[in-house]
Amino acid sequence: MKEYALIVAGGKGTRIKSKTPKQFLELEGLPVLMHTILAFYRYSESIQIILVLPADDFATWESLCAQYGFYKPVVLQQGGDTRFQSVKNGLEKIEGDGLVAIHDGVRPLVHEDIIGASFRLAAVHQSAVAAVRLKESIRITDQDTTKAMDRSRFRLIQTPQTFQVGMIRRAYAQKEDDTLTDDASVAERAGHSISLFEGSYENIKITTPEDLVVAAALLKSRKDGYKKDKS
């Protein structure tokens, strides 16, 4: 099947306390978003990437590509006011059927093995959503009371969230509401079962200044590992 990656990058950098949108912040020599795109090209040079950005960020992206000599092919699409609308717009750029991995632009540490697993599983189950087990104890709160919960029953959801194109496109035809927080919830609301697979704790979403520090350390560690493998 034809494979697509729909990368959504509409953040504004509010929680990271930066005037520069977080997807454009430099991380180990490249903007965060470029690391994300390169991860998908490491998985496959034939993948088609659709990059969804706010219209006001198109010029910034083109300027950064020239500055860093980054010329990997992507199809640009204008985002919407919400993530739901941005993904829906991105899906319009896909002609025909296939599989699409929908991914946060600020998850630059996704590994090609995770991407590959998502496509293989989605080809069988129509959906494949990366998730990891909780490490900490959790409690549910109800006003003034709390209750311990069995953490083994819960998962932290990541991206990529990969789907058969026709299925997720039809799911996004439904009416948007605030409870549809990711692509899996959109597909589930449309009546589809969601298949989870094991993600990675390294596949962090850059949201706060601390996340940038952690991401830089992980990227440096990977680069050092690649050097050792080649030596």
Give an overview of the whole structure:
The protein is of the alpha/beta class. The protein contains seven helices and eleven strands. It has helices spanning 32-43, 58-68, 83-91, 112-125, 165-171, 183-189, 209-230, and strands spanning 3-8, 26-27, 30-31, 48-53, 75-78, 99-104, 127-133, 138-142, 145-149, 155-164, 196-198. Strands 5-4-1-6-10-7-11 form a seven-stranded mixed beta sheet, with helices on both faces. It has a two-stranded antiparallel ribbon with strand order 2-3. The N and C termini lie far apart (37 Å). The model has no long low-confidence stretch (mean pLDDT 94). It comes from Chryseolinea lacunae. Pathway: Isoprenoid biosynthesis; isopentenyl diphosphate biosynthesis via DXP pathway; isopentenyl diphosphate from 1-deoxy-D-xylulose 5-phosphate: step 2/6. GO terms for molecular function: 2-C-methyl-D-erythritol 4-phosphate cytidylyltransferase activity. The record marks 15, 22 as: Transition state stabilizer.
Question: What attributes characterize this protein structure?
Answer:
single chain; 231 residues; Spore Coat Polysaccharide Biosynthesis Protein SpsA, Chain A; two-stranded antiparallel ribbon; 11 strands; globular; 2-C-methyl-D-erythritol 4-phosphate cytidylyltransferase; IspD/TarI_cytidylyltransf_bact
Share in β-strands: 15-25%
Total domain units: 1
Helicity level? 25-40%
- Average pLDDT metric: 94
CATH fold type: Spore Coat Polysaccharide Biosynthesis Protein SpsA, Chain A
- The count of β-strands is 11
Strand order within the widest beta sheet: 5-4-1-6-10-7-11
Q: What is the terminal-to-terminal distance?
A: 37 Å
The low-pLDDT segments are none
The major sheet is characterized as: 7 strands, mixed
Radius of gyration computed on alpha carbons:
18 Å
